[in-house]
Amino acid sequence: MDFVHGLPRSQRGHDSIWVIVDRLTKVAHFIPNKRDDSVETLAKLYVEQIVRLHGVPRSIVSDRDGRFTSKDWRLVHQMLGTKLAFSTAFHPQTDGQTERTNRTMEDMLRMCALDFGKNWEEHLVMHRNVEFTVGDWVYLKIKLFKGVSRIRRLKKLSPRYLGPFEVVERVWEAAYRLALSSELSGLHDVFHISVLRKAVKDPAQVIDSDRVPVEYGLTTKVKPIRIEGRAEKQLRNKVIGMVKVRWDNCGREELTWEREQTMQAEFPELFS
């Protein structure tokens, strides 16, 4: 847990946000408060917003804010049976996931500051909690798996997800069981919600999940089919011969410009 200070005072008088992130499910809570709120006020908010929903945590990681290290705060958690862990000075990475959540939230608030003004507090509750139900279709992040990626390189416009796959069971609030295709039968079929993206199923837009051996650097071997054209590239002191190559990229054809000298050395059969 951590605080974000220095916000414009809202219509309810709040100028800070108390950020609390569940280490297991990654669920984040954004609780508006005042910078000078007492430990008693924070303890009441903590019980109403966190304990009521999730129960009493076993441990809490936070920085050394004066309220977190106070005798009253320690006494509250001693009674609840929660262990308190504090980061050392100038080492915010101890509570890294909360720091990253803070950074993302601050960026979003800054982008919308002119629109929100003093109403920023009203928009905190509008963040979307992602949930799926049995029967939904989802995409699965590709970079999780070696031997599954079927793209030559993970370029900017290359697909980043496999699927879609059907959700067959909600194992717990942040994990779902999927009906995987036969090509992925060797994988465990339960996935965290962070690697899933909801899909509006369209049979005409299914991304194939053919098994292709992935090499170092997330690359795969592709075969050149033929030379489609030639050109010369003028540099300062020399001219480089270029060839337009048609590739067989896992069942899909692609065209790229390559150095003629390199292609002759690696694929002499194209020039015979």
TrEMBL record:
Pfam families cross-referenced by the UniProt entry: SH3_Tf2-1
Gene3D superfamilies in UniProt: Ribonuclease H-like superfamily/Ribonuclease H
InterPro entries: Integrase_cat-core, RNaseH-like_sf, RNaseH_sf, SH3_Tf2-1
Signal peptide: none
GO molecular function: nucleic acid binding
Chain ranges of the Integrase catalytic domain: 1-111
Alphabetized SUPFAM superfamilies for the sequence: Ribonuclease H-like
UniProt record, GO biological process: DNA integration
Family matches, as PANTHER family: RNA-DIRECTED DNA POLYMERASE (PTHR35046:SF26), ZINC KNUCKLE (CCHC-TYPE) FAMILY PROTEIN (PTHR35046)
Name the record gives this protein: Integrase catalytic domain-containing protein
